[in-house]
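Q: Got a minute? One more chain.
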Amino acid sequence: MASTPPSFFRRIGLALSVLFNAELAAKLQRVRGEAEPPAADTPIAPVAPVAEPQPVIVRETTPEAALQLLGLLQREARFVDFVQEDVAAYSDADIGAAARVVHEGCRKVLREHFDIEPVRSEPEGSRITLAEGFDAAAVRLTGKVVGKPPFTGSLGHRGWRVTDTRLPKLVEGHDAGVIAQAEVEL
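A: Always. Here it is, folded:
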């Protein structure tokens, strides 16, 4: 009967067991013929089973929503055109005028398709205290971070959180990778 070799993580667990359990290491040496067996009166402790580490579950995302958002930003704000343009030859006034149009269109897309609210309600610059158990996914600590919560510091940015998304539904077969069609004038 053929046995299946242990997985990589199981082998790591076994290696750690041998590393931290002298009796198990001695047994392994005996099995491999590398050491004399211990005296009959030497007790050998039973080996505790090592729990196999749980794999990290990673969600794979599809690019359609991001491509859809880029398409909306291009349609309403000419965002991709603006970012792809080499602006070195333009004056600051010309860039500023174009930025106003892009800003207005981007803002329209965000308001139409997302509900966005600040992560923190306090004004930027105010002193806040983060208690133990604060949401580290929503608040990033900067500066010299030492010790354990509570942490007291100055709010540098309130953060943003999307509370609702309303992207248009895609028709079957739609190529979301085409974020702006080429235009041909006849």
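A: The CA atoms of residues 39 and 73 lie 78 Å apart.
Q: Perfect, thanks.
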